[in-house]
Amino acid sequence: MDTLLAALPIAVVLVLMIGLKWSAIWAGLSAAIVAIVIALTTFGFGTDEGFGRVQGVTGVVVSAAWTALTVMLIIGPALGIHHLQQRTGATAAIEAGLARITPDPRVAALLIAWFFTLLIEGAAGFGTPVALSAPFLVAAGFKPGTAVVAAMAGNVAAVPFGAVGTPTLAQAAIVDHDPVDLSWAVSPYMVVTGLVLAFTVARLVGTLIPTAGPPWRWMAVAYAAFFAPYLLIARFVGPELPSLMGAIIGAGIFIALVRAVVVRRARAHAMTGPEEAAEREVEHAAAEVEATEAHRMSLLAATAPYAILVVLVLLTRLVPPIKTGSQSWDVTWSLFDGAFGDGIQPLYHPGPLLLVAFLGGALWQRATRAEIGGAFSVATRQVIPVFAALVAMVTVAYTMSESGMTTQLAVAAAGAGAAWPLLSPFVGALGTFMTGSATSSNILFTDFQDLTANQAGLSALPLIGAQNAGAAIGNMICPHNIIAAAATVGMAGREGELLKGTLPPALITLAITGAMALLLA
Asked: Residue 342 pairs with which residues in a beta bridge?
């Protein structure tokens, strides 16, 4: 009975958002009330932890507000960058640059929905890739819902090694396994489930030109170009660079192959026509090269915010003196003798880095005060209502976590015995669904997965890898992420539509991961 009650807040969220199409704020508020009542009446929240019930509820709500604020630090500047790019014409310049790579907008869209999201996830993580890429896809002609689902599916494969390896490094700090072994433990799951994710991205990208259909062949090339270096780095180097370098190397290979095909087709076309047509084709190619040279600086300026962000993230993550300095400033708070508390490292958190990227991009693009002020103003107005929805949803998560409801669900799942590997990735996804972070999910449940494997006589590494993979997949259905993504494309209040789009691929990939864990463990 306790397990059913512990699952009730999650059921409320799913039914209200998907079934009844309620907005995230009202669904979250309803689920938060249900969670608090169950926590107080069934799980004794606030009586066994050394503080009172009122203090417990207060602590949870304040913690949720703090977490929502840290998410706002990401969404706000990301939206600001999007609106700045629109106002300065940078988005159009990037689209022109993509058009020079290939005349097929679907193939160009793969560079955004696949490689760009993977790159930003590998560099920054914490919701940054969807916040940046979904608005860009909308500007490129996608419907808002399609853009969000494509971006959320496109970045999942990078999540175990996102933010320069943070989720897997969190596991390494908890269990006695080598980081390279942990990297390799999760990689097979991501390679196989990556096929479903790539299929999803290609299908959605195909909606850009419905008569042409999805770009299956180019998606296959993009898949292979990313996962080949990804696997090698995960196997022999460790968790910091598989996603980041896989995206950079893969994008380079992909662009080179696309350009080679475009040039070959142009030459073949010129060869089949009369001599005058061939000469015109050569002249056109020369003009294209000249145009590329002429627009090189403008394209560099157009991509400046993203380039600045990647450089800042790499400096603060990979250069030891800078990393130490950026982590030296902590802003913390606590309540009720430390029963509740949290903190942030402002110089290390992606939010302030995004703000610097916004300002740096504005300077590089020589944006006017009106353009900067307009972008900032619109972004601010957009994020204010999102804050309330995030507070409501995070209150659900923290109430369940602090009262033991989340642990109750995980322990109940572990009672499956020999069938446990089938459920292990679902526990990882549950952690992300409730906390909004694959890293937090791994912190919550990695040791649990390790102990469960040992008690059941199973191999631990495959289950720890399944935990990491499940936590990554959970990003697609996490209410926190969906609320944030909806805000970036003007879908606030329609989050249920997005959850309905991301839930099927998430469930399919979780089932595949569970089946693989059963075989490997």
From this structure: 333
Distance CA 10, CA 19 (A): 13
Whether residue 376 contacts residue 80, with contact meaning beta carbons closer than 8 Å, is answered with: yes
Q: Distance (Å, rounded) from C-alpha 363 to C-alpha 319? A: 26
| 166/130 Cα distance (integer angstroms) | 18
What span, in angstroms and rounded, lies between the C-alpha atoms of 455 and 370?
63
- Going from the C-alpha of 78 to that of each of 66, 82, 146, 242, 358, the distances in angstroms are 19, 6, 19, 24, 8
Name the nearest CA neighbour of 32 among 495, 411, 401, 427: 401
State the alpha helices, DSSP H only, in 303-368.
304-318, 320-326, 350-364
Rounded CA separation 423/439 (Å): 19
Paired with 343 in beta bridges are 332
39 vs 396: CA distance, rounded Å: 10
Q: Is the dihedral of CA 22, 28, 30, 31 positive or negative?
A: positive
Query: Which pair of tokens denotes residue 434?
Result: 């409730």
Count CB-CB contacts under 10 A for residue 277.
Answer: 13
Tell me, letter by letter, the H, E, C secondary structure of 415-438: CCHHHHHHHHHHHHHHHHHHHCCH
Q: What are phi and psi of 238, to 5 degrees?
A: 140, -170
Return phi, psi of residue 435, to 5°. -105, -20
pLDDT tens-digit readout, 430-449: 889 877 789 888 887 888 88
What is the 3-class SS of 193-244, one letter each residue? HHHHHHHHHHHHHHHHCCCCCCCHHHHHHHHHHHHHHHHHHHHHCCCCCHHH
Q: Which residues pair with 344 in a beta bridge?
A: 331
| Two structure tokens written together for 342 | 């949290």
Q: Using an 8 Å Cβ cutoff, are 502 and 152 in contact? A: yes
pLDDT tens-place string over residues 142-166: 999 999 999 999 999 999 998 888 8
CB atoms within 10 A of CB 380: 13
Length of the chain measured in residues: 521
Q: pLDDT grade, residue 298 (50/70/90)?
A: confident
Q: How many CB atoms lie within 10 A of CB 328?
A: 10
* Dist CA 43 CA 404 (whole Å): 7
- Reported as a single tens digit per residue, the pLDDT across 177-203 is 999 999 999 999 999 999 999 999 999
Radius of gyration of the chain (CA): 23
